């Protein structure tokens, strides 16, 4: 597997770690989903006491699970990122690819699962990051060609 794809995988793991952190630190999201799954949107009525107890208990277990997943995905991200550093032609290439992938996957997951909106400023910044990544890749390709020409002479 090439270094760039390893860096993309590391960016994906970093995005998953951030999603787990958001879920671990946002109990209202988990409670809302629990009440929806159990068919109750209002926990104030007396008939909902059992539902409230179940969701409160579930909240504790789910939050601990997401805290554990934060560490797991960060460990995976660092492992894959270090491998990408070893196989990419430069550490800059691996770092920029990892960062761009992390931004992209975080945006897609945030938009798809949390219904977050992406501002014009975000799109401009992402476009500049991707443009920089393309320029770095082109520069690396030209450098490799020059080195190959020098070796052939």
From TrEMBL:
InterPro entries: EmrE-like, TMEM42
Lineage: Eukaryota, Metazoa, Spiralia, Lophotrochozoa, Annelida
Superkingdom per UniProt: Eukaryota
Signal peptide range: 1-21
Transmembrane segments: 60-82, 94-114, 120-136
Protein name, as recorded: Transmembrane protein 42
Keyword field: Membrane, Signal, Transmembrane, Transmembrane helix
């Amino acid at each position: 597997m090439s270094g760039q794809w390893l860096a993309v995988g590391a960016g994906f793991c970093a995005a998953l770690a951030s999603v787990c952190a958001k879920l671990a630190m946002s109990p209202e999201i988990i409670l809302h989903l629990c009440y929806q799954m159990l068919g109750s949107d209002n926990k104030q009525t007396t008939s909902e006491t059992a539902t409230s107890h179940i969701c409160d208990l579930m909240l504790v277990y789910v939050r601990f699970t997401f805290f554990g997943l934060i560490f797991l995905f960060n460990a995976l991200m660092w492992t894959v990122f270090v491998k990408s550093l070893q196989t990419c032609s430069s550490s800059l290439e691996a770092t920029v690819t990892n960062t761009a992938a992390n931004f992209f996957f975080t945006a897609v997951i945030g938009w798809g699962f949390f219904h977050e909106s992406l501002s014009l400023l975000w799109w401009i910044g992402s476009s500049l990051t991707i443009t920089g990544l393309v320029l770095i890749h082109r520069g690396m390709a030209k450098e490799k060609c020059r080195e190959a020409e020098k070796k052939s002479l």
